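Usage

Read records sequentially. Each one opens with the input sequence:
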Amino acid sequence: MAAVSSLSGPQNSPNETIYIKNLEERIKIDQMKEALIEIFSEYGNIIDLIARTNLKAKGQAFVVFDEVEAAQKAITEIQGFELFEKPMVLDFAKTKSDAIVMRTGSGSELEAHKRKRLAEKERKQATEAVEAQRKIKRTVDVVGDVPPRSTKATRGAGLKSSNPAAGAVIPEEYLPPNKILFLQNLPDDIDVANLTSIFGNYEGFKEVRLVPGRKGIAFVEYDAEAGAISAKERTAGMQIGDRAIKVVYQRK
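and closes with the structure output:
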C-alpha cells in the first residue's frame, strides 16, 4: 500500500466509528469486508463493520471500534493508504453507530437514536428534492418561457402543480418529518376505530381525522415528530384489506 499525503484530515469530531469512502466499487462486498478487517483490526477491537451493495452506499464503509483512541490512531496511520489501488479517505462518522448505542445505552435509547437518524435522512432527502426542483426551474428559465399546463387542483391533498416553472415543490415521499401523517389508498369502508387500532400503538398518539366526503384518505396526529416517524417507518406500505396504504408526512 502507498500513502497519499495530500488528503486532508478528519472534519468530524472524534468518536468510535470511522467513515471510509473512495473504496473500489468493483470488489465484492465479502472480499472488501475481509480486507478492511485485516487492516483495521491492527488498531483495536472492531465491534461492527458496515458495507452495503446499494447504489448510494457503494464505495463506502463504516468501521466501529470499542474505543475512540483506536479510531483516532487508525485514521492517523491509514489515511490515504491504497486498498485495491485506490486511496482510502477516512473521517469520523457524523453520528454514533447503533453498535455503540447498544453497548452504552438502553433499548429505548437505541430506538430514539434510530428515529433521530431516520429523521435526519428524510430531511436530507427533502433538501435534495428541493434542490433538484430548483435546477429544473433554472433550466426552464434559461431555455425560455414555457406556457404552464392546465392543472386541476387535487382536492384535500394540498398538492401543488408539477409544472417545473411553478417553483420548487418537494415530492410528497420526501417531505421532511413533522407530527402529522397523511394516509392514502385506504379501504373505502375504514373508520376511525380501525385506524386508531393501528396508529394508536405509537408514542404520543393524539387522534385520527377522516376527511368528510373523501374516501381513501385520513390524517393521523401525534404529540411530537418522534411518534410520527416511528409510525411512518412501520406502517408505510402496510396491507389493509386488499390495499397497500401510502403513509407520508403532511405537507405544510
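Summary fields computed downstream for this record:
- The mean pLDDT is 81.
- Residues 186 and 216 are 4 Å apart (CA to CA).
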